[in-house]
Amino acid sequence: MPEARQYDLVLLGATGFTGQLVAAHLARRCGDLAWAIAGRDPDRLAGIAAELGEAAGARPPDIEVVDVTDREGLLALAGRTRVLATTVGPYARLGEPVVAACVRQGTHYADITGEPAFVSLLRDRYDTEAAERGVKVVTCCGFDSVPHDLGVWFTVGHLPDDVPLTVRGYVEANGRPSGGTLHSALEAVASRSIPRPDRDRTPDPRTQRRVAPLPARLHRIEQLGGWGVPMPTIDPVIVLRSARVLDGYGSAFRYGHFLRVRRLPTVVAGAGALGVAAAMASVGPTRSLLERFLPDPGEGPDEQTRARSSFSVTFLARGGDTTVTTRVSGGDPGYDEAAKMLGEAALSLALDDGPATAGVLTPAVGLGAPYLARLQDQGLRFEVVPS
């Protein structure tokens, strides 16, 4: 871990909708840790800090004023903390200076990005330097991609390790996204940032294991009912990167990632709507028209709406003659549970004796068993489902 510093942990972006949820979670969990919330609006930060201290019955967090476009300010902030977690997006536009400051200052980093172009950029530009400096840059510590990455890791632990393994993940979720999430998604669609799993089929030198994605095809799910619809998210990319380097994923490993839809007409309607949105987002004038109908960044669903939201990811796995079905589930996926996921990732980086590795990492590779235990302690369910 980095040497003793003013803070154990800093949360950047605490004035945003998701950032406030993460800050509230940390206020309940930080105990005696020295921590701070950071952003560019000192008045809003002061109000949030006071509310957090009153709600948690503890000393409120310190305040750090910084803008993500201020590189010197980011360097100074990163140099004062051992761990920095950020909710400031879109990450493709606003995230790199934060990572650059953390790597340079030897500060561990965590975020909730689901933007494949951003993660690829970090791997290309910062993986080697972060590894050399002993810095963990752990991306995708939200609904993208914690339930899927840790869920597959949990699943393969129930299969033999000396045979090829195949896992299919089926996602079900309900909930209303925030303005920031919708604007990030629109930007990703407009830039045609489609995640593609690594196509290198050569064995990784650390594990001698070949990994590959399963075909992205619409199919009937006999065991569960309904239809499996390929999901163009970063999650299978993250799962396969973990499978390349971690023990326990068999002699070879394949993964497929799908949305579970119960009725075929829903699949057709959803595909049509996505096609129209993608076409409109790719053209400047119609993209501006779409943006007018989106909630502003910083807005999100109220507490009652989030309380009615939930998610589950069911994994159907096979290794040789052994089959297993597992499930990861929880409450509101994009906000309440995502706040837990990022908050516990930051706490794990600050407190836990985690995996001895550094670089630009997936949650399973960078945080491992202590992080899984934290998630379970906070109410996320990882379970084997009877056949």
Structure description:
The protein has 387 residues and is α/β, with parallel strands linked by helices. The chain has two domains: 9-143 and 337-376, NAD(P)-binding Rossmann-like Domain (Rossmann fold); 146-332, Dihydrodipicolinate Reductase, domain 2. The chain has 15 helices and 15 strands. The strands form two sheets. Strands 7, 8, 9, 10, 11, 12, 13 and 15 form an eight-stranded mixed beta sheet that branches. A seven-stranded parallel beta sheet has the order 3-2-1-4-5-6-14, with helices on both faces. Helix 6 (116-133) links the parallel strand 5 (108-111) and strand 6. It is globular and about 60 Å long. The model has no long low-confidence stretch (mean pLDDT 88).
Major sheet: size, sense and barrel closure?
Answer: 8 strands, mixed
Strand content: 15-25%
**Helix run count:** 15
CATH architecture of the largest domain, please?
2-Layer Sandwich
How many individual β-strands?
Answer: 15
Overall pLDDT: 88
Secondary-structure-based class equals alpha/beta
Please give the domain count: 2
User: Fraction of residues in helices?
Assistant: 40-55%
Order of helices and strands: EHEHEHEHHEHEHEHEEEHEHHHEEHEHHE
- Determine Rg (CA atoms, Å): 20 Å
Distance between the ends:
43 Å
> Which word captures the global form?
globular
Low-confidence stretches: none
Looking at CATH, which topology of the largest domain would you report?
Dihydrodipicolinate Reductase, domain 2
Q: Could you name the CATH class of the largest domain? A: Alpha Beta
